[in-house]
């Protein structure tokens, strides 16, 4: 059976995080974006490691008592196997331990797996940010989870 661990992201993870990022997204974040997140006092990033290999990451910013999810991604060959749900659960627990009472995120309406992941965990759609993903010409759905 595979050994899975979830822990805080550190700078030495960045090579592997960038592999996930570049393979999971068509408009990936740069290395410098992640370097800034690692030293950002508001930011909390977790990684999923399977048998010693980093296969995914997710993060949020804690703004007062709200956790704003910035990103969550798994290597394509590990998607659809429950790791996203596991990671999201750890992000929610971490946010709660840090004092967050709600969690919010933006998602593309066409991203069916991500919308399923969030709605199954109780996130509710509450609003739209028009043209949020300008490079893709797509709006963002805003989702919230209350009472963490
Ligand atoms: C979104 C993502 C993090 C979800 O993680 P995951 O490990 O694949 O999700 P899970 O296996 O926990 O499944 C979550 C739900 O999505 C569904 N799902 C997963 N992959 C799917 C796919 N390729 N097509 C359709 N549904 C899919 C699962 O069936 C499950 O729904 P269910 O509860 O109705 O069965 C992951 O797919 C991913 O990295 N996607 C690319 C990056 C991305 O879009 N991130 C989100 C940005 S908002």
UniProtKB/TrEMBL annotation:
Gene3D superfamilies named among the record's database cross-references: 3.40.630.30
Q: Which reaction does it catalyse?
A: N-terminal L-alanyl-[ribosomal protein bS18] + acetyl-CoA = N-terminal N(alpha)-acetyl-L-alanyl-[ribosomal protein bS18] + CoA + H(+)
- This protein's major location comes to cytoplasm
Q: Where is the N-acetyltransferase domain?
A: 4-148
Give the record's GO CC terms.
cytoplasm
InterPro entries, per the entry: AcTrfase_RimI/Ard1, Acyl_CoA_acyltransferase, GNAT_dom, MshD_Acetyltransferase
As recorded in UniProt, coiled-coil segments are none
Q: What keywords are assigned to this protein?
A: Acyltransferase, Cytoplasm, Transferase
What's the domain of life for this entry? Bacteria
Which CDD domains did the record assign?
NAT_SF
State the Gene Ontology terms under molecular function: protein-N-terminal-alanine acetyltransferase activity
- Name one matching Pfam family: Acetyltransf_1
Write the Enzyme Commission number(s) for this entry: 2.3.1.266
Compartments annotated for it: namely: Cytoplasm
Biological role: Acetylates the N-terminal alanine of ribosomal protein bS18.
Q: What's the family?
A: Belongs to the acetyltransferase family. RimI subfamily.
Q: Which NCBIfam families match?
A: rimI
Q: What is this protein called?
A: [Ribosomal protein bS18]-alanine N-acetyltransferase
- Organism per entry: Sporomusa ovata
Phylogenetic classification of the source organism: Bacteria, Bacillati, Bacillota, Negativicutes, Selenomonadales
